[in-house]
Write a structure and sequence with these properties.
single chain; 182 residues; alpha+beta; Aminopeptidase; eight-stranded mixed sheet; 8 strands; globular
């Protein structure tokens, strides 16, 4: 596990599937994700089973928050994928499914932990993400953490009968060293 202050990143377990199904069927939760059809338990179970085919580095991690009595509560997931080992880069993704944990700094802490893991443990040079132009809170958070806007994929998102841009943001290992601490 990867530990921070009252937060941990851990492997996803079969017991997490019902929470994912609940979260991924909530329009507010999936507004910034590439999901636009209802998600079934069967779909999530198949997704979970396919995780075993991925390398450990490419498996998403559950985000847990410590609550009273030293118990942990699962609030979302985070991960690195699309690794290019020759170029030492990977794509980053996150979502907080428990809306009662939105705007509490959990996402920020989890991002800093996964960046530390990516840069210091996996020796990546570049971690990048894609974010919808409509997701202003996420863009603000990523910028605050130190991600830099590289460009955009013009009208790459079709949502609510409109086309929107997708922004590409990244952070380099050298920028992590100078800007970000966990």
């Amino acid at each position: 596990m990867i530990f921070g202050d009252n937060i941990r990143l851990r492997a996803i377990e079969r017991d997490d599937i019902p929470r994912f199904v609940e979260w991924l069927n909530d329009p507010e939760v999936i507004a910034g994700l590439v999901i636009n059809i209802p998600m079934s338990t069967w779909d999530e179970t198949k997704w979970f089973e396919k995780l075993a085919d991925r390398s450990q580095e490419e498996r998403p991690l559950a985000i847990d928050v410590k609550i009273e009595n030293n118990e942990w509560i699962h609030v979302g997931n985070i991960g690195l994928e699309m690794f290019e080992w020759t170029n030492r880069q990977a794509e980053f993704g996150i979502f907080i499914g428990r809306k009662d944990y939105w705007n509490k700094g959990i996402g920020s802490q989890a991002i800093k932990l996964i960046l530390k893991h990516g840069f210091e443990t996996l020796n990546l040079n570049r971690i990048y993400l894609k974010v919808y132009e409509t997701n202003l809170p996420a863009i603000h958070l990523y910028s605050k953490i130190g991600f830099v806007l590289e460009g955009k994929l013009r009208q790459s998102l079709y949502q609510n009968n409109q086309y929107f841009d997708i922004f590409i943001m990244s952070m380099l290992h050298s920028e992590w060293n100078s800007k970000t601490t966990v």
